[in-house]
């Protein structure tokens, strides 16, 4: 190193070091195993640009995180004790040196007999000063932008302004010998290979963290107006209705203005501060799961997020979680009902774009909205929409609506070369902020309209703690792989303008997304305790019995995990119970023989919500246990066959993670687990339940009651549908209303307070499954569905009846047999 370079380096360190000490960087990815992976190996860190400040910050972080320290003499090879640092521009050849450092390194290594003698590790490091993806220049962007562009003064100002908003990403190390393959390439070509690899990595890392360069809202609207779909819709309306083109263009622009987001990266920092304060007031801490896998997917794919929808806080929590994880928040499809002052404009600047609930056959609006989706997807912006359409009032996932997914896939197919991944997201809550309003709505109250007034009334929520919300990112779905699975030659068909494969692909992706959402479920303490406590007829249980059942349920979930992504509660049974009791407001009644835990009133209704959000993880064991509710012994072969026949109905409602051809094998494996835990006994092909009065019997009984309300719904629906087999068909809507009326009456007579008795979607899903299984016939008459049954449905109904207790069977049969029952 020349003497002037050395003095310049020391001068920079002297000037910048005080500021570096004030910087509080966020490590958005640092594998816990990285120090161990690099231990005892020569390491070369690579930065994406030449920057003394980045290097000095890297030195500090390496010491703090136990990584190899940057101490090698410049120009010298790193060794086991001294790491070195290179810069991407130098690797790319943007230097005045005759021989680049990497080429010299390769030449020096060429004399070694074995590559193992020098296992050099290349560690790319990305450092972002701020969250500005880049657009126009202004004073505010000078202070709130990043320091990638501009001179030393700009960088110095950015360092001061953004010292608390610095993101650092350590990538997985690249083995130099494997990457370059020295024996097959000369030094110059090997250097180019590494430079290209790193250039692509830094480019994708920047897009994933900061997002693509932003266009102004006006530019996006202008691009929408120039889209062929919009101009064609205007031409059609001019020709068919004779309206003025200028008037239609003005109307289209007004629609685009209604839809378009106004994403502002500067506001994200402000929203970060506001939401941090709000969430600290409401929650005890946001829990984020499987973010590392998501960051890997973001490195080479454009992401489309499709989360579950349980609360208005969902989109705030997801964007906040992504921002904190070092990923750019998405553009979010929001209902037009949220576009009210002052929330509408604020959400719009945070990335929300608005969609009407119904297009009502408005061809112009449809063209404008589809074109807007095409613009933002073509620009590479990540996007988010809720496939359920609305918030779930029961805790279960709702059947996916396909309209938004259809428009998204159509836009993606216009750019078949772009890699897209759909990201399922499970959002769960220890306690719902909207819990009270949900209870009222399920009991018949109208939905409260969002407004500024309702926002002011919401101040009361700050008086309560709502536990921890959970955001769990499911396994990403590769769009190309899904399309190939549905249609092997979809690319050729798309190029030829044949999109006949699209309906099947939409249905497949929608179902796969919902299945993966449930596969990423977080079984929180309140959900687990709710499953157990609600299995008691009076929602009351001795504390010791409850604790024992927690241990058994956790053992079941650990021995036969529902999926690799399911998150189980931490701590022992006592800790799990106490956490749930604090959040759910459970009552404790002291008694000489031991405490009794109970839930009453509104808390009991909300417990069904929390149970429903996680009950799918134990649905199959619960179905098996239900067969032993009224009999002591069952033949395993008969049990497997019966469960396999019933599983399609549970799968349709709960989006279970099991393929139809594996039903029997899944049932058999769960039986084995129940036998291992001594919840069932097996002699040959005969299975028997434990002795009455034992804890094992109580656990098996409680396990079987998890699906009680679900089985009751199936039974009452089947009995009503099979009442007059072979008779004339009836309008499906009328039949659905009759079933719901019957469910409401049974709920009153039996004292049930389960939300699913009042959810029309669940009855519709069951009828859909009956039709797909061939147990119910359906046909369209004058744009209305008509259905009728045959004798097989009566046999099917009897299976459900056999799983219920005598009291419920009697109540249902009496309702069906009434002379004045609806026909």
From TrEMBL:
Top EC group: transferase
Gene Ontology biological process: CDP-diacylglycerol biosynthetic process; fatty acid metabolic process
**One Pfam annotation, family name?**
Acyltransferase
Write out the annotated subcellular location.
Cell membrane
Listed GO CC annotations: plasma membrane
Matching InterPro entries: GPAT/DHAPAT, GPAT/DHAPAT_C, GPAT/DHAPAT_LPLAT, GPAT_PlsB, Plipid/glycerol_acylTrfase
- Membrane topology type, per the record? Peripheral membrane protein
Q: Does the keyword DNA-binding apply?
A: no
Family assignment?
Answer: Belongs to the GPAT/DAPAT family.
NCBIfam families reported in the protein's UniProt record: plsB (TIGR03703), PRK04974.1 (NF003441)
Name of this chain's protein? Glycerol-3-phosphate acyltransferase
Organism, by scientific name, is Spongiibacter nanhainus
């Amino acid at each position: 190193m020349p003497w002037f370079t050395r003095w310049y380096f020391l001068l920079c360190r002297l000037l910048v070091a005080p500021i570096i000490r004030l910087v509080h960087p966020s490590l958005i990815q640092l594998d816990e195993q990285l120090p161990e992976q690099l231990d005892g190996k020569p390491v070369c860190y690579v930065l994406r640009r030449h920057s003394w400040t980045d290097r000095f910050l890297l030195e500090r972080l390496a010491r703090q995180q136990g990584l190899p320290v940057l101490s090698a003499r410049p120009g010298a090879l790193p060794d086991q004790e001294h790491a070195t640092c290179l810069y991407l521009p130098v690797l790319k050849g943007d230097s005045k040196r005759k021989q680049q450092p990497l080429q010299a390194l390769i030449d020096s290594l060429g004399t070694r007999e074995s590559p193992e003698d020098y296992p050099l590790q290349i560690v790319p490091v990305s450092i972002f000063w701020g969250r500005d993806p880049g657009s126009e220049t202004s004073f505010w962007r000078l202070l709130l932008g990043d320091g990638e562009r501009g001179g030393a003064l700009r960088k110095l100002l950015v360092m001061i302004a953004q010292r608390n908003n610095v993101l650092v990403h350590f990538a997985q190390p690249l083995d130099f010998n494997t990457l370059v393959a020295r024996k097959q390439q000369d030094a110059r070509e090997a250097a180019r290979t590494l430079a290209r690899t790193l250039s692509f990595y830094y480019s994708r890392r920047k897009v994933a963290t900061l997002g693509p360069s932003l266009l102004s809202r006006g530019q996006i609207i202008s691009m929408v107006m120039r889209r062929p779909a919009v101009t064609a819709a205007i031409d059609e309306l001019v020709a068919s209705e004779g309206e003025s083109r200028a008037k239609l263009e003005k109307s289209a622009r007004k629609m685009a203005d209604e839809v378009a987001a106004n994403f502002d990266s500067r506001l994200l920092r402000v929203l970060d501060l506001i939401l941090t304060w709000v969430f600290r007031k409401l929650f005890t801490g946001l829990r984020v799961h499987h973010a590392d896998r998501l960051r890997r997917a973001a490195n080479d794919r454009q992401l489309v997020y499709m989360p579950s929808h349980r609360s208005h806080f969902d989109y705030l929590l997801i964007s906040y979680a992504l921002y904190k994880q070092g990923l750019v928040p998405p553009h979010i499809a929001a209902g037009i009902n949220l576009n009210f002052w002052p929330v509408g404009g604020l959400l719009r600047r945070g990335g929300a774009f608005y969609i009407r609930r119904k297009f009502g056959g408005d061809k112009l609006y449809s063209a404008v909205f589809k074109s807007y989706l095409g613009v933002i997807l073509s620009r590479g912006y990540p996007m988010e929409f809720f496939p359920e359409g609305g918030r779930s009032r029961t805790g279960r996932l709702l059947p996916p609506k396909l309209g938004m997914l259809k428009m998204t896939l159509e836009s993606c197919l216009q750019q078949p070369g772009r890699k897209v991944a759909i990201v399922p997201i499970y959002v769960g809550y220890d306690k719902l902020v909207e819990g009270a309003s949900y209870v009222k709505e399920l009991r018949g109250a109208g939905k409260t309209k969002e407004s500024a007034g309702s926002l002011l009334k919401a101040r009361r929520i700050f008086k309560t703690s709502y536990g921890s919300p959970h955001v769990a990112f499911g396994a990403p779905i590769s769009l190309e792989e899904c399309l190939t699975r549905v249609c092997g030659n979809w690319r050729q068909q798309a190029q030829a303008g044949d999109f006949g494969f699209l309906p099947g692909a939409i249905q497949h992706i929608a179902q796969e997304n919902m299945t993966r959402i449930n596969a990423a479920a977080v079984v929180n303490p309140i959900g687990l305790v709710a499953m157990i406590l609600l299995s008691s007829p009076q929602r009351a249980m001795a504390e010791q019995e409850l604790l024992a059942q927690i241990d058994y349920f956790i053992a079941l979930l650990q021995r036969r995990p529902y999926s690799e992504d399911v998150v189980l509660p931490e701590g022992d049974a006592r800790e799990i119970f106490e956490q749930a009791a604090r959040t759910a407001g459970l009552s404790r009644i002291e008694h000489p023989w031991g405490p009794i835990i109970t839930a009453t009133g509104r808390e009991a209704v909300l417990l069904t919500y929390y149970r429903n959000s996680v009950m799918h993880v134990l649905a199959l064991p619960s179905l098996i246990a239900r067969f032993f509710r009224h009999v002591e012994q069952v033949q395993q072969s008969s049990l497997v066959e019966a469960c396999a026949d019933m599983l399609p109905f549970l799968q349709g409602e709960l989006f279970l993670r099991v393929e139809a051809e594996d039903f029997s094998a899944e049932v058999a494996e769960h039986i084995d687990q129940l036998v291992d835990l001594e919840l069932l006994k097996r002699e040959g092909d005969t299975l028997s339940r434990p002795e009455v009065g034992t804890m094992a019997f109580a656990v098996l009984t409680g396990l079987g009651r998890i699906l009680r309300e679900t089985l009751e719904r199936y039974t009452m629906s089947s009995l009503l549908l099979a009442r007059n087999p072979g008779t004339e068909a009836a309008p499906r809507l009328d039949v659905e209303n009759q079933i719901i009326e019957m469910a409401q009456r049974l709920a009153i007579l039996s004292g049930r307070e389960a939300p699913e008795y009042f959810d029309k979607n669940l009855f519709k899903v069951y009828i859909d499954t009956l039709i797909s299984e061939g147990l119910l016939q359906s046909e369209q008459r004058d744009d209305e569905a008509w259905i009728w049954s045959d004798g097989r449905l009566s046999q099917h109904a009897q299976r459900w009846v056999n799983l219920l207790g005598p009291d419920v069977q009697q109540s249902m049969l009496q309702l069906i047999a009434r002379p004045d029952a609806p026909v």
